[in-house]
Amino acid sequence: xATVGGALAAWAVLIEPAWxxxxxxxxxxxxxxxxxxxxxIVAISxxxxxxxxxxxxxxxxxxxxxxxxxxxxxxxxGDYVIHGVxxxxxxxxxRTAAALRDLAAPLGVFAVLGNHDWWYDGGRVTxxxxxAGVRVLEDAATPVRTRGGTLWIAGVSxxxxxxxxxxxxxxxxxxxxxxxxxxxxxxxxxxx
Length: 192
Prior knowledge:
By secondary structure, this protein is an alpha/beta fold. The chain is built from 5 helices and 7 strands. The strands form 2 sheets. A 4-stranded parallel β-sheet has the order 1-2-3-4, covered by helices on one side. The longest helix has 17 residues, at 115-131.
């Protein structure tokens, strides 16, 4: 029995966390404009660069897989840095952003920050991502031109560390316009 427990522990700590898992999900949206057609979106979240098994080289592999999916849009959903992870080491946000620089999608690469990013230095993480060509949306929205019309991408700040302002994030979006809303933590507690 101890051997089985040891094997399961080794699997859970040493093997499984090192895997990069790709999941594909089809999400039908009832009121999605037909003219926009289907969109292929790659969503990447909680990279926590520097955590055990998450090196800068791992980020390059994540980027290669993301690009190989031929997405129309890539969204990064926060937590690029780590704090106090056992067995981990801090990696500067500039190194993480540089590893993500090659992400490419016709409609762009957009990001929001997570709680770990704000606990460290949200401004620095934002500047690092922007320097790598990633558009960071903090309670803001931007139009994206597609073949079938305009789509809006909005970012809502992390509710754990910021006063998430959903109304401010959507203020520029015209009534009835198609919008994709990004946030690190979708828990509505404290959102206004």
